[in-house]
Design goal:
By secondary structure, this protein is mainly β. Helices cover 4% and strands 33% of the residues. The chain is built from four helices and 55 strands. The strands form nine sheets. Strands 1-2-4-17-20-23-26-29-32-35-38-43-46 form a 13-stranded parallel sheet, covered by helices on one side. Strand 41 and strand 42 form a beta hairpin. It starts with 20 loop residues before the first strand and ends in a 15-residue tail after the last strand. 59% of the residues are buried.
Length: 603
């Protein structure tokens, strides 16, 4: 749905600043960084810098990239043998930290196992045994240290992820800019850029990393980045005064094997105050587009373009005061839509209070949900009970050309609390027929016509409805002051390598290109191999709704989150989770939207 734009997301041409310290390809990066001390500025030369361990910045340091500078967390595999139709490489000693393997997506094998293999820059899918290997997949035998591919590597580039992050440090006031960062085995809920407080992460392309692309803490700014195709999620973090401004967040989530209803998609922040998310283009993510979950307060979503995400467009879950204003949301939640299902709305307020939703453009056509207030039994948090109360939805434009999607309020727990909770829809403009059952208030499983809904609920006083439909395609071109949605520049840079030219034959070594073939050295282990299941407390039960993307976010130690509970006649909330602050990113247990009924504890 993108249209041409002159916007710049990702690396741009910059000039090396005076006094910057050179980091040539293959340098002893950490030694140079440590020797320079706090406050130094570094200049990565153009070319591919293959890392085996994360760079650990010191306080106040700045890292800039010359044009074409790529930090790559993989090594290239060039020696294979063919065995019974599969292609085998030894020496695969890498094993990363396994987080949240209990929340594997349905049908996925080894969800949360961060070992990655790429064929021509595209991630291969792990399977559980050699018998399951086929084209596009791999099996890693942790005992024999061998990887089995279903694709003949001849004429292709095969890379194995090794390093757990490009940058990881608790040091403050670090800047990362103008780099391409790819192929890192960042664990679930951790970033390829794992930042501390007051970090500035701008004009980078962050792509094809296992866990989260970028994770930051208090006072940090994430700006002008192109963040795409990361395995679990694009962005995340916790803390006060974080700004997320003008990023292209695309096609994240899914391939890490973690259920996106628990955590995944474009971004998720937890336990924040004064979070500002503005002017971002979040699209085609496998999960929600923009998500705040667990004890966020004074959040602002403004001027974002959020389209075609599998989950809800913008969702504010088990949190507190927020302003959601001036956003354009359409085409979200297609995987969650269903007759009577409240999940996956273009804008979704779940067990949150004191939220103002105003002046947004919402297209719910095709059976998608528009603006939904949802109440379940989600307990209490840092600033009081997690109730859906004191929310104001006004002066929005809501378009529905077809389908049975819903706008309004739904409760599968304490319906009267929702109805009497000072929640208000008013002065909205609806472009829809008004004669179909697209409005809902309470726990009814079917909706009402606009007139009946107004009469029964008393909601949407001062609102208007017209069957005349605007051309919502112009919403995209009008976004960002007329700059429009950008055309994504493509995938991250691929590493220039010598590829193998295998010959067929059972258990026969495959020939390589004219240069000598070196056996791949054992990789440096990045983290422990202990499997950490989500806290039981974080995946409680959610009331009747099945919310497909509930989860919680945090960094550091995990704290108990909310859980989906099943109640009579309700849907289960698909995205419940727990939160943590510090190292881990949000745990989604019972937050968000459940796309299918789930009664088991989530994250």
């Amino acid at each position: 749905m993108a249209v041409a734009s002159n916007d710049v997301f990702g690396p741009s041409a910059i000039t090396k600043p005076s006094g910057a310290i050179d980091l040539p390809v293959g340098a002893n990066y950490q030694q140079i960084i440590d020797d320079a001390g706090p406050g130094a500025t570094f200049w990565f030369a153009g070319g591919v810098h293959n890392l085996t361990t994360p760079i650990v910045p010191l306080a106040g340091q700045t890292f800039l990239g010359a044009p074409g500078a790529v930090l790559d967390g993989s090594r290239t595999l060039t020696s294979f043998t063919e065995q019974n139709g599969l292609y085998v490489a030894g020496g695969q000693t890498q094993e990363g930290m396994r987080n949240d393997t209990a929340v594997t997506a349905p049908g996925a094998a080894r969800g949360g196992y961060p070992e990655t293999f790429f064929l021509d820059g595209k991630p291969l899918t792990p399977v559980a045994s050699t018998a399951d290997v086929k084209s596009g997949t791999f099996y890693l035998d942790y005992d024999t240290k061998q990887v089995y591919l279903g694709d003949n590597p001849a004429g292709h580039t095969v890379q194995a992820g090794i390093a757990s992050a490009a940058f990881a440090s608790t040091a403050a006031n670090v800047t990362i800019s103008n780099l391409t960062i790819q192929h890192f085995d960042s664990p679930v809920q951790q970033g390829a850029i794992q930042g501390g407080q007051n970090w500035t992460v701008e004009n980078n392309e962050v792509a094809s990393n296992f866990g989260v692309g970028i994770k930051v803490q208090d006072g940090s700014t994430i700006k002008d980045n192109y963040v795409h195709d990361n395995g679990e999620m694009g962005l995340g973090g916790s803390g006060a005064n974080i700004t997320v401004d003008h990023n292209d967040i695309a096609s994240n989530g899914g391939w890490a094997g973690i259920d996106p209803n628990w955590e995944g998609g474009g971004e998720k922040f937890s336990q924040t105050s004064n979070l500002l998310v503005e002017n971002n283009y979040s699209h085609d993510n496998h999960g929600p587009g923009l998500w705040t979950d667990i004890d966020n307060i004074n959040t602002t979503y403004s001027g974002n373009l959020v389209v075609d995400n599998d989950g809800a467009g913008i969702t504010h879950e088990i949190s507190y005061a927020a302003k959601i204003t001036g956003n354009t949301v359409e085409g979200n939640g297609a995987t969650l839509k269903g007759e009577g299902s409240p999940w996956g709305a273009q804008i979704q307020i779940q067990n949150s209070q004191n939220v103002e939703v105003s002046d947004n453009k919402v297209d719910m056509s095709g059976g998608l949900n528009g603006i939904m207030l949802i109440q379940q039994d989600r307990g209490s948090g840092a600033y009081g009970e997690h109730t859906t109360t004191n929310n104001s939805v006004h002066d929005n434009t809501i378009v529905n050309s077809s389908g049975s999607g819903m706008t309004g309020g739904f409760a599968d727990y304490d319906k009267q609390g929702l109805l009497d909770g000072s929640n208000s829809f008013a002065n909205n403009t609806y472009n829809a027929s008004g004669t179909t059952d697209n409005w809902r208030w309470g726990d009814e499983t079917v909706g009402d016509t606009f007139a009946q809904y107004q009469k029964d609920s008393g909601q949407d006083q001062g609102s208007t409805i017209s069957p005349i439909l605007p051309n919502t395609a112009t919403w995209l071109s009008d976004w960002n002051g007329g700059a429009g949605a950008p055309t994504d520049p493509g995938t991250a840079a691929s590493t220039p390598v010598v590829t193998t030219t295998p010959t067929s034959g059972t258990s026969t070594p495959l020939a390589s290109d004219p240069q000598p073939v070196l056996q791949d050295p054992p990789a440096t282990s990045t983290g422990t191999t202990t499997t950490t299941a989500p806290d039981a407390a974080s995946g409680g039960g959610t009331p009747p709704l099945i919310d497909p993307n509930q989860g919680s976010t945090s960094s550091g130690t995990e704290t108990a989150g909310s859980g989906d509970q099943t109640s009579d006649g309700g849907a289960t909330d698909p995205s419940d989770g727990t939160g943590a602050t510090g190292g881990a990113i949000h745990h989604h247990g019972h937050h968000g939207h459940h796309w299918a009924v789930h009664v088991a504890a989530q994250g």
